[in-house]
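In this section we walk through a basic example: taking a raw amino acid sequence and producing a predicted 3D structure, encoded as discrete structure tokens. The instruction is simple. Fold the sequence below.
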Amino acid sequence: MLFKGAGQISSLLAIGPHLTPRFSGVPGALGAWETVSTVSPTGKMKKYWHVINIGIQNNLTYRFNFLARAVFGLIPLIAMLYVWQKIYSDKGAGTTVGTYSLAQMISYYLLITVVDALTAVNEDDWQIAADIKDGNISQFLLKPIDYLWYRLCLFLSGRVTYLAVAVTPLALFILYLHQYFVLPPSWTALGCFLLSTVLTALLQFFMSYAMAMLAFWVLEVSTFIFILFAFEYLASGHLFPLDILPRGVEQALYFTPFPYQLYFPVSIYMGKTRGVDLVSGLLIQGLWVIAAYGVARLAWRRGIKKYSAVGG
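The resulting token sequence is shown next.
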């Protein structure tokens, strides 16, 4: 699904010229002109709110697709829950796997589904790569709108729309399994879970954005996107809880950003991460967000120099 609101976004980009000539050292490059915004901070906020509004309107035209994705996305979840129920039934009543009872294991996968619905990057990386390959980013180089924030607004609008459509089937599914669903141990855990979920969304977006920047240098980024997705699926806790792995493997994964993309917020909700581990984990997750943002910005600057130098 490609973004269809380009005409409406063009109206945003049609704001009067805000450029001043400042030589950047690249002859003939678009980068030789730097944007000098005369728009007030309030005007900037309105501009990006307008992007979110347009994004929501555009995504609502695909609401049936979102609904189908949400409903059929429950099929792998049902299969996974059936497998775990079979494992626990074979081991007998009161059995635990790692530190998880059957109810906790089912709750874990339900929470993974919820967090994934709130934070997953679906097609944003593909769309960004397509913008670069098709030359659509040229309009952003000479007008007072930041491409990264523009794409972040579209990402947020996509998540809001998907959640609005998917909330009913997901809520009904959780209600059906309510006897297995556990509540957070405290209000503090719930608040930290929500904060961590926001950081998870930002981390996933910035990492995908940085990966899509490879389109400046290679013709096809699909291989790299699939490799990143494979690592995320295995190492983020999507397939299984990371704390059932051997201790050394689990600790090694925490040197990567992947556990902070799904497992960490869910572990907070379930009370698996608390105290000093909770505080340090949130700080590390925040640092990963900052690092991913920095890489995304750096890749954009390097890519734009190459893009401008070849007459993009």
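Looking at the output, two observations stand out. The radius of gyration is 22 Å. The longest helix spans residues 275-309. In the next section we compare this with other chains.
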